């Protein structure tokens, strides 16, 4: 009888470890709900991106475009591919997956 109780305790501990591991890996992936604050596109000046609403200028970082995201904590600007993410609007709430400082995926609700 004591063996059965020990097995249940070990099983419970392993399940808790599995759930914690799943939670940590899911958060580690870098998924965040954010709002698109500004979109930056290339202008006439080479090497500089201009904001659509604000008109602010950014130095180009190798990509053609960039998007500024804002959440409750801070605002972040990520370079991205213009052709892939043109259908997202300013003010739209999106889920952003970030890995190593670059956007992996953007999706709506």
TrEMBL record:
Know the name of this protein?
NfeD-like C-terminal domain-containing protein
Its lineage opens with:
Bacteria, Bacillati, Bacillota, Bacilli, Bacillales
């Amino acid at each position: 009888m004591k063996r059965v109780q020990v097995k249940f305790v070990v099983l419970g501990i392993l399940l808790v470890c599995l759930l914690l591991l799943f939670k940590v890996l899911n958060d580690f992936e870098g998924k965040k709900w954010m709002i698109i604050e500004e979109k930056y596109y290339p202008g006439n000046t080479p090497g500089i991106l201009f904001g659509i609403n604000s008109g602010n200028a950014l130095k180009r970082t190798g990509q053609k475009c960039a998007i500024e995201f804002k959440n409750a904590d801070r605002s972040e600007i990520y370079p991205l591919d213009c052709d892939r993410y043109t259908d997202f609007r300013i003010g739209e709430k999106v889920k952003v997956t970030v890995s190593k400082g670059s956007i992996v995926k953007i999706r709506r609700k």
